[in-house]
Amino acid sequence: MADLAHPPVTLRVLDPDDGSDVAAVVAAAVGGALPADVMPPDGASDPEEWTLPRERAYARFLRGRPPAETSYLVVEGCAVVGLARLRRDGDAAETGVWLARRARGRGIGVTVLGLLVERAATAGADRLVADTTADNVAALGSLRRHGATVQESGSDVSAVVRIRARGSSR
């Protein structure tokens, strides 16, 4: 029986040409995250404020992701609550995730990271790498729960999750 208090969390590939996919991600970001959480710095005078030009810039950013990268809508039940991405880089897969405030602190990040590890393994990667900051306690906790080796350099943190080969017991 499904747990109604905690709807299932799934990943769905973002179609950057689908206006409703892009709009759902932008709406989740505007309603629950800071611009700096979800997109590169844009030089705006108030980096914590969503404006219509910034929303449009984020939509363009989503539509312009490189072909080597796959972005996923993080869906809880029927609601988009964040975005995750994977990009192959040799034998590794690089990842990044953001979640709307309403999805934080409930284990969704741990679940999403597990789904990304599975996708990276299916794609043949032997490790999943993530970069974050030392103050991103939630991301570091999720990475450690998945066995990441963490290396800190000042406020920058690099994490590596080793992926077992399918069918391997190593």
UniProtKB/TrEMBL annotation:
Acyltransferase is among the record's keywords: yes
Start and end residues of each N-acetyltransferase domain: 9-167
Keyword Ribosomal protein: no
InterPro entries tied to this protein: Acyl_CoA_acyltransferase, Bact_Acetyltransf, GNAT_dom
Keywords on record: Acyltransferase, Transferase
CDD domains per UniProt: NAT_SF
Superkingdom as given in the UniProt entry: Bacteria
PROSITE patterns in alphabetical order: GNAT
PANTHER family per the UniProt record, alphabetical: AMINOALKYLPHOSPHONATE N-ACETYLTRANSFERASE-RELATED-RELATED (PTHR43877)
Stated name of the protein: GNAT family N-acetyltransferase
